[in-house]
Design goal:
methyltransferase, Alpha/beta knot
Length: about 160
């Protein structure tokens, strides 16, 4: 299975990079996981609704340019469907069973994802009703993907 995590913005915090590298290393026996970091759109602090949409569209264009037509896309969005770790594991297992070997998880910038990206997504996933920094979300997502593989193989880790 090839998994891409496509995310807007750079990770600057060393502790987040270390955590992500640890889970990427743990995931290596199970799947090929790539992280694709795309630059966020520079914008002033206060934006009109229209300016916010323009920023999301520009970031969305960058995201869509990294997604091939045969990729199954899971957008991370607060309004998405919430799943337990077991349900995520089951979903990934079903995708693999039905020949969906290319999966992209998409994490938007601070304003979220454009409607164009949401329309391209095969499903949207929410980790919580709470808002998380998109940099931290990458680490949480990697941990949950790792947990899903461990659950699916009946290996110890999941509690």
């Amino acid at each position: 299975m090839n998994i891409h995590i496509i995310s807007i913005g750079k990770i600057k915090e060393k502790y987040l990079k270390q955590g992500m590298n640890e889970y990427l290393k743990r995931l290596s026996p199970y799947a090929k996981v790539d992280i694709i970091e795309l630059p966020d759109e520079k914008a002033p602090e206060s934006l009109s609704e229209q300016e916010m949409e323009q920023v999301k569209e520009k970031e969305g264009e960058r995201i869509l340019a990294k997604i091939s037509p045969d990729t199954y896309v899971i957008a991370l969005a607060i309004e998405g469907t919430m799943k337990s770790s077991e349900q995520l594991a089951e979903s990934l297992d079903k995708l693999a069973t039905y020949g969906k070997s290319k999966i992209a998880f998409v994490i938007g910038g601070s304003l979220g994802l454009s409607q164009t990206v949401m329309s391209r997504a095969n499903e949207s996933l929410s980790f919580s009703k709470m808002t998380f920094p998109h940099q931290l979300m990458r680490l949480i997502l990697l941990e949950q993907i790792y947990r899903a593989f461990k659950i699916n193989r009946g290996e110890p880790y999941h509690k």
